[in-house]
Amino acid sequence: MPLPSDKRWPAWLDFIQGLTGLLLVFFMWAHLFAVSSILLGKPAMFAVTRFNGEPG
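-> structure tokens emitted (56 positions)
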């Protein structure tokens, strides 16, 4: 991939920052989902575990 010109660097950096922020949002929602299942009780926690692909 060719390097962007000097005047386009800020736009590329903003784009990359936006992508990493979006990844952080997805991670935080997944983490919130997993942690809240613990607070909701054993059946909810095991349902999330099965959803995430635990064999058996």
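The mean pLDDT is 86.
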